[in-house]
Amino acid sequence: MEYITMKEAAEKWNLSARRVRTICNEGMMQGIIKSGHAWAVPKDAEKPADKRIKTKNIQSNNNKIYCLK
Asked: Phi first, then psi: what are they for 49, rounded to 5°?
């Protein structure tokens, strides 16, 4: 199996290297390998779905967060 670096994966998926590192740390992809401090991403890996909340209006009330759409 061929692998690419986090930087190459970031360019391929149009993401920052930091976001790819977070994806690797959270285990959101299959087949990733950590070697020392660097991650190796399979060359044929698909970009994982973004699970972050995407809203512009967030309101906080007594430590509760409400997402307004």
From this structure: -65, 145
